[in-house]
TrEMBL record:
Annotated family: Belongs to the FMN-dependent alpha-hydroxy acid dehydrogenase family.
Residues at the active site: H239 (proton acceptor)
Cofactor: FMN
FMN hydroxy acid dehydrogenase domain ranges (all copies): 1-344
Name recorded for this polypeptide: Alpha-hydroxy-acid oxidizing protein
GO molecular function, one term: oxidoreductase activity
Gene3D superfamilies linked to this entry: Aldolase class I
Sorted UniProt keywords: Flavoprotein, FMN, Oxidoreductase
Family matches, as CDD domains: alpha_hydroxyacid_oxid_FMN
Binding site for FMN: P80, M81, A82, S109, T159, K215, S237, D270, G271, G272, I273, R274, G293, R294
One Pfam family per UniProt: FMN_dh
The organism's taxonomic lineage, starting at the top: Bacteria, Bacillati, Actinomycetota, Actinomycetes, Pseudonocardiales
Residues the entry annotates as binding glyoxylate: Y27, R168, H239, R242
Amino acid sequence: MTSTLPLTLPEFAERAAEVLPDGVLRYFAGAAGDEITLADNVVAWQRLALRQRVLVDVSKRDLSVEILGVRRPHPVIMAPMAWQTLANPGGEIAAAQGIGAAGGIYTMSCWASQHADDVAAQAADTTRWMHIHIFPDRDITQRLVDRAVRGGFEALVLTADQPVAGRRDRSMRAQFARPGSPNLADLAPGSLEPAQTWEDVAELVTSSPLPVIVKGLLEPGDAELAIQAGAAGIVVSNHGARQLDTVLSTASALPAVVEQVAGRVDVLVDGGIRRGSDIVKALALGADAVLIGRPLLWGLAVGGADGVRHSVELYLKELDIALAVLGVTSAAELEPSIVLPAPWSA
């Protein structure tokens, strides 16, 4: 099927817009308010230029990185996204199979439209993380943790930036049948937890046999609190710009967070990563890996598991070429000096 799939990452987005129903596209593509942060998540990476060195032997290149103490073949992780059967009937199972076939990690949303046990059974060879919330009913959170352990998931990804639901103008006009979330069948509608605190995170870390990654941080002070609570990693994220408009873009927030963390835990980043060169910039600024959401969902919409796999492979091809042209032989060699403010953004 690869021969019929798009040749470039932008083409996947274009094709997805053609095949998805309007309401579903609005839901997945939309963000909070006027979508200023949504746009800046992308543009912020484009405001960074790359320093190029030449006549370096780059005949052998290594894309591997270490994530949670494990050497992984590359730094691409699929971000958690709800209701993936809306994008493709294969849903979360197909997405997990696709990212796994490309050697990446799949983060399954607790709002998934397929059961975690089914994803675990049918994507057993894929490294899987489970996304969770701290819900008002802590027993529901605990059941998600238990299900993750039982299903062989290797980490928990805790959303920290959603005490309430964001107001997403474009999504408000989206008309489609929501498929439900079988992993949260006993959760009352709208059950987010505005009273959650860092004490809840510390309790989760203490009780969980799996490492906890806290997702949704933009401030160095919050990164420090995550470390104090026992987090194994953090994700610099603004929830795909879906929670509050005009918050910092993730590329803008990343350097200060990396400086604060100082290598004590893994720092991951998501938001606006549309090219392999964006991955280069993220790693150079100190991220250990990247989470990619919408672009891989467009791959799922266009081509199911093959579409996800091919999308990841396009990112990796671009990443590999970027390393070679920059005169860098491995992802581990990337450092902040490679990145500078772009003259075209002045």
